[in-house]
Amino acid sequence: MRKKFPLSIYKKTLLNRLLKNYALILASLILVGMVSIGMNTYWQAMGRGKATTQEAVDMLSRSINDKNLQGKTMLNGLTDNQDKINSLNRYMGSDISEYLNYTYDEQLKTGNYLFLPSQVKNFYTTYENIESIIMVLNNYEGYYLSTNENKGGMKAKGTPDLEDKFYLSYPMIHPVTLEVFGSFYVEFSKQEMLSSLMHLTTFDGLSAYVFSETGYQLLAYTEVTKQMDQQLIQKRMKETSELPIQSLMKKNLLEHLETVGGFNILVTISKEKIVKAVLGDLRILIVGGGVLILILLYLLYRTFTKYSHQVDIIMDSMALVTQGDLNTRIDEKMTQFELKELSTGINTMLDNIEQYIADIYKLEIKQQDAHMRALQSQISPHFLYNTLEYIRMYALSEGSEELADVVYAFSTLLRNNTDQAKTTTLEKELSFCEKYVYLYQMRYPDRIAYHFEIDDALRGLVLPKFSIQPLIENYFVHGIDFSRNDNAISVKAKVVGKRVEIMIRDNGKGISGQKLSLIQEKLKQQTIELHDSIGLQNVNERLRAYFSPTFLMQVVSNEPSGLTIILSFEKEQKDEL
Fold first, then answer.
1. Using CA of residue 290, residue 296, residue 297, residue 302, what is the dihedral sign?
2. For 252, which DSSP code?
3. Which of 42, 78, 429, 575 has the smallest CB count inside 10 Å?
4. Which pLDDT score is estimated for 313?
5. What is the DSSP secondary structure assignment for residue 135, as one 8-state letter?
6. Distance between alpha carbon 17 and the CA centroid of its chain, in Å?
7. Where are the alpha helices (DSSP H) in 323-400?
8. What's the confidence (pLDDT) of residue 383?
9. Rg of the chain's alpha carbons, rounded to an integer?
10. What is residue 324's DSSP assignment?
11. Quick check: 474 and 535 in contact, CB under 8 A?
């Protein structure tokens, strides 16, 4: 029974004092941190801006180099030998039906199928970021155009439109004569690079520009609303084909790279945007820090006060327990979180202690009762043995030898059952089983026959008591047919090689094939659960524990009826348990 108790004298706990000191230290650290952060925020912001520009340049450089390599690979795939160049010329100089016949004839001659639309389609499969492919041959009017909508391509008139698109261009050079016979253009998707730049942005104000080696603007990305820098770059590139690096560095963090392929990459971040972002962060830091300190002190005061009150409740309870009141329990409704778990644990411990005291008291009573029963068990069997011996002697004196034999067999069974020994010899076990069968034979004369046979070398073999009797009992409980006159059971124990084999065989009712399969399967398992075969289960587990790992039990059906149970194990004498 739980009861309420008054608060104890433990008002100023060590935890309470420590938590108050912690609140003061934490507030001081917040102030110092705010000052340090304010001093370093600007330089850290500039460093992040510089790192962002460098990362943007590296990202654009890798992306352009990859695309440049893809473009060269595609061009090489179309012009790396004379047959492919002939196929290009034939495509541009003839209609599609003639070109199909040409490619078919060439395939028959050389074994290579050089159909230009199929080659170009493969590029779209290999490189997913291609938007279009253009080829202009010097000796032909018009140009070849392939797009995502028409991957096979077609011949178009006029000149290709390259404005506001991310095109990489390559001269088409004859591999033998080194003569330039056309131009090859590949349009790549801008969205991939633009998305990467958006994810790189740490501050508003990132701008990125990519120019080809001829000064053509391939890419322009900016987050600045004012277009002055972009206008300055475009103007200077048109006039001098050079980037205004020095002018841009005055107002921007800047990174510039000229790649091996001749591409100019320029990335800038506006210093004005960085300063504004830093000032905004500092304002939030100062205001937020002050509010945080006030809220923290208030919450700590409320939390610590409530926490200390709960600790006081637990300590009051422990004080009453130390005074000997084991019925005291902590009111778990008054505690929370880890203190609630602690209270539950203490209450459980007190309940267990109370239960242990009760169990010890009950155990002492049971122990006294056990002593009494032990005395009774020493008297009762001795009385029964003397009584049965008197009956047997009286039967002999009256000339009833058969009744005397029955009484003697029953007395032997009773003495074996009350014997406290855990092991016996195989000869004694079979002798006990033989008397068990003999009693059944006396009850049902002329209906049961039995035969027990044991090798002389196995008579002294030690094994657990009642290892074979339950198997014989199983036969009389489940297998025997008392309406027949030819019921028979035999037990043979012999040495086969290095193993001992004990065979119990009968001609009883037997069991169904399904049930036999189930028993055989479960006998192979480590843990046996033969709920319908308690005798088998008991014997198997006990002998397996005694002779393991050499012990094996087998159950097979006889023809035409009955069962055979075979127990086998290596012949190894063990000490008595």
1. positive
2. E
3. 575
4. 81
5. E
6. 45
7. 337-397
8. 54
9. 51
10. T
11. yes
Amino acid occupying residue 250: K
Residue 28 pLDDT: 83
Closest by CA to 436, choosing from 485, 498, 504, is: 504
Identify the H or E element spanning 182: strand 180-188
Q: Which two tokens stand for residue 374?
A: 């032990």
Q: Which two tokens stand for residue 129?
A: 């970021």
CB–CB of 82/106 below 8 Å? Answer: no
In sequence order, which residues have a C-beta less than 8 Å from that of residue 566 and are 6 or more positions away?
Answer: 501, 502, 503, 504, 552, 553, 554, 555, 556
Assign residue 224 a region: left if phi > 0, alpha if psi is -120 to 50, beta otherwise? beta
pLDDT of residue 160: 87
All residues at 6 or more sequence positions from 166 whose CB lies less than 8 Å from its CB, including other chains: 131, 187, 188, 189, 190, 218, 219
How many other CB atoms sit within 10 Å of the CB of residue 69? 11
CA 569 – CA 463 distance, rounded (Å): 11
pLDDT value, residue 31: 82
Of 223, 212, 193, nearest to 56 (Cα)? 193
Q: What is the pLDDT of residue 184?
A: 92
Distance CA 391, CA 501 (A): 39
Q: Which residues pair with 252 in a beta bridge?
A: 270
Burial level of 285, CB count in 10 A (0-12/13-18/19+)? middle
Structure confidence at residue 564 (pLDDT): 92
Distance of alpha carbon 449 from alpha carbon 200, whole angstroms = 97
With CA atoms as reference, report the closest residue to 562 among 519, 509, 484. 509
Helices 191-200 and 14-79, packing angle to 10 deg: 160
Write the single-letter amino acid at 322.
T
The ranges of the chain with pLDDT < 70 are: 1-16, 19, 201-203, 225-227, 303-304, 358, 361-395, 397-420, 526-535, 572-577
Backbone conformation region of residue 14, classed left if phi is above 0, alpha if psi is from -120 to 50, else beta: alpha
Q: Phi/psi zone of residue 399: left (φ > 0), alpha (ψ -120 to 50 degrees), beta?
A: left
Helix/strand/coil for 509: coil
Give the pLDDT confidence of 88-121 residue by residue, as tens digits. 888 888 888 888 888 888 888 887 788 888 888 9
Q: Dig out the tokens for 422 from the structure.
A: 């855990």
Cα–Cα dist 405/391, whole Å? 11
Q: How many residues does the chain have?
A: 577
Q: What is the pTM of this model?
A: 0.44
- With CA atoms as reference, report the closest residue to 565 among 546, 532, 525, 537: 537
Parallel, antiparallel, or unpaired for β 217-222 and 206-211? antiparallel
Contact between residue 433 and residue 417 where contact means Cβ atoms under 8 Å apart: no
Strands 499-506 and 487-496, by their bridges, are antiparallel
For residues 280 and 302, what is the distance between their CA atoms, to the nearest angstrom?
33
pLDDT at 6: 41
Enter the tokens of residue 348. Answer: 């459980």
Give the Cα separation of 419 and 407 in Å (integer): 18
As given in the structure block, the two tokens for residue 309 are 């009150």
Beta bridge partners of 137: 182
Alpha carbon distance 284, 398 (integer Å): 118
